What we know:
It is built from 18 helices and 7 strands. The strands form 2 sheets. The protein has a 5-stranded mixed beta sheet. The protein has a two-stranded antiparallel ribbon with strand order 1-2. By secondary structure, the chain is of the alpha+beta class. Helix 1 packs parallel to helix 4 (44-58). It is elongated, with a radius of gyration of 23 Å.
Amino acid sequence: xxxxxxxxxxxxxxxxxxxxxxxxxxxxxxYEDTIESPMERVPIADxxxxxxxxxEATKEPLLGFKLGARRYDSRGPLSTMVFFYAxxxxxxxxxxxxxxxxFQERTLFKLTRNHKTSQVAYRIVEASPELARHDxxxxxxxxxxxxxxxxxxxxxxxxxNFEHGAPPASKAAYERFYxxxxxxxQPINEIVLKESDLVAVNPLSDETAIELLRDHIRTVRSExxxxxxxxxxxxxxxxxxxxxxxxxxxxxAGYLNMSTRSLQRRLSEEKTSFVTILQKQRFRIAQSLMRDxxxxxxxxxxxxxxxxxxxxxxxxxxxxxxxxxxxxxxxIHREALDPDELSSN
Length: 345
């Protein structure tokens, strides 16, 4: 899992070309309301598929690389702020790795220091290098930009290594930007620096700001640990299976390689139940579908979230939201109208 804020640069790429988002979410466990919220959790596999779809849709084979190659400032994500307040590049990179681990599960960020060189390595665990290509190039290039801003515009690394193969375009574009040799099909994704680069001091460092950032890292880690529980895994399974004939307790238990009895007992220990999780996901998905301004009928929405008919959905929705699905949909769409459109009715 990772935080949805990682997706936002790709959304910006789509919007810059006035492209629709919904077709790219088809068959993925992603919803617009989820990915628009920076702190929502998104399955890594779905995100990686999404980056390739955006690359194809925008006809940008070097999409991740190009999105990463921009200027960053202290108003950006918290992981970039450490480069503006850390007392040294070494501290900035250590904090950056801590942030990355807190915001992304099943990823590896590691800083290794040697006698003459140091390496910052990045890898998504259990993802093929080719599937991870856009994310890796975005992450490595963004990190490179932040290091360059810290050390000055004339800085360059000793070497850049990528696990994936060379993209269709010539690697000359990469070497021109990095001003360093670039190699593909390597054992690890890494930026190789001089050891002396890490001792560079930031005259504008702010230890108070760094402590606040450390506190935030601890908070995020604690929240991630709490939400990496069985409840969260059941929620993900329900999201994938909802609307099918088999979104029931035995099927979800099998999906998680557990017995029905064990699943019920462990959810009870976490003070919830399968029915509670199922209802919560039905409500979330129903809300998302109703925000969509398509002509999808209520009967169709009911079927998509696992209800036999519109009446069943209506009863459940009223218990959740205190209003009928039709009233909710009218309210959402009315709020989305601009003043000119309202005055014309």
